[in-house]
Specification:
Structural class: mainly alpha
Number of strands: 0
Number of helices: 13
Largest sheet: none
Number of domains: 1
Distance between the termini: 35 Å
Order of helices and strands: HHHHHHHHHHHHH
Strand content: under 5%
Length: 317
């Protein structure tokens, strides 16, 4: 069989550039799929962890270890580690928002609300908050396509999770827990928008390493100083479910998905990367069916279809 010839008249440099662009887009889509899978399955791991371990210690130790691992990897490869003095205040602020405050507030909230309700709040609020903060910061323009995507996504989330998560009456602990999930989501979204300008100077890998280290150690230190039971739990006698959850959140979560998130924020922008929030809940539902034999209603199937459609609108160029 003869090989198909390239279109006549196109210079080799243009063909090479098109091939490189296509390969980069394929790689970015693969990273996005990994991000959606990992962040679609982390709520269960977090719920398991915070029932056995003080949330500040559980979260701070994971991010601190992740940061040390990323910094060590860069050091072994001979890559520079550091940040210009003029960027350090913003780096500390981003670390506090994305790691320290987001982590501990959300995990304490997760102690008092069902995982389904936490998923509803996070999935619905994340793309709205990321898009809103990025528009206010002048990084994105709000378009009719984004508005349609948000409307579809919110409708889908309500169809999938609303009937289960929002039935009954919430007491004050549940209300405060839901408020914690909301606050953590807002902190993370604001930190994501503030982090993007840092990547004009810092690589995504360097930014991920530094934010994990700064945010993780700040949270770990605060936990050991003020959080009840954290010093006693420092020995790691958590039981295998909590230890397994910690490792899952550390390896594919903190080390893998966080680095990918920064890469996509740099290359795609905040509002487009936010499309993961419409896909991750679908991943969580499918995982629950496969792992625990949970049943899916027709409304949930329709809701997941709407969420995938919303993600398609967000991701389409």
């Amino acid at each position: 069989m003869m090989r198909e010839k390239a279109p006549a008249g196109l210079p080799p440099t243009l063909l090479a550039a098109e091939a490189a662009g296509s390969a980069a887009l394929t790689r970015q889509r693969a990273m996005f799929a990994f991000l959606c899978f990992v962040w679609g399955t982390t709520w269960l791991a977090m719920k398991i962890g915070v029932t056995a371990v003080p949330p500040g210690l559980f979260c701070g130790s994971r991010w601190a270890v992740a940061g040390l691992a990323l910094v060590g990897w860069r050091w072994l490869r001979g890559e520079r580690i550091g940040v210009p003095a003029r960027l350090r205040p913003r780096l500390v602020l981003v670390s506090l928002l994305m790691i320290s405050l987001n982590g501990v507030i959300q995990l304490y909230g997760l102690r008092y609300v069902p995982a389904g309700l936490a998923t509803v709040i996070s999935s619905a609020l994340t793309p709205i908050a990321l898009t809103g903060f990025s528009v206010l910061a002048g990084q994105d323009r709000f378009t009719h396509r984004q508005a349609a995507a948000l409307a579809l996504g919110l409708a889908g989330i309500l169809l999938v999770f609303g009937p289960k998560a929002l039935t009954g009456h919430l007491g004050w602990p549940e209300v405060l827990g839901a408020g914690g999930v909301i606050a953590g989501c807002l902190f993370y979204s604001l930190g994501s928008v503030l982090a993007r300008p840092l990547m004009r100077t810092l690589s995504p890998g360097e930014l991920a390493a530094l934010t994990d280290c700064v945010g993780g150690f700040l949270l770990l230190g605060a936990s050991l100083a003020f959080e009840p039971g954290s010093r006693a739990a420092l020995g790691g006698q958590w039981g295998w479910p909590a230890c397994g959850a910690w490792l899952y959140l550390l390896l594919p979560g903190s080390l893998g998905a966080t680095l990918i998130y920064f890469l996509l924020v740099r290359d795609w922008g905040v509002s487009r990367t936010a499309g993961y929030a419409f896909i991750s809940p679908v991943v969580g539902v499918v995982a629950a069916v496969l792992m625990f034999g949970e049943q899916i209603s027709l409304g949930e199937v329709l809701g997941m279809g709407l969420m995938l459609g919303a993600a398609g609108l967000v991701l389409r160029r």
